[in-house]
Amino acid sequence: MAASVPWRVLTLVWWGLSWWFLFKPGSGEPPPFEHYDKLGHFLLFFVQGLLLVPAWRARAWQLMSALALWAVLSELAQGAFTADRMADPFDALADMAGGACALALWWAVLGRSGKLLSFIGR
Known about the structure:
VanZ-like domain-containing protein, transmembrane, membrane, transmembrane helix, VanZ-like
């Protein structure tokens, strides 16, 4: 159990930083390329998904459910509590895609070979 504590701290720190990015006011500048914001959403949730596996050691469907719930709730909160942002279902889809890709990466690189359990300290 102690091996997961640093991972949990990193996960919570990243989650807090993600909330800051999701709720900070827009710069007003045009994005560098089309769908730039979708890439940002994807990457935020990709990293969160990478951190969740060793932090909580839950089943993939549980982690993906948590990421999907967070994606939807964060979009609803953006729409409700920010003046210059709106809830965008495509942002939530980009969030979920990032999380799903992170979980798939864990499975593909470490999970199938049995190295995942030793890597995360089980």
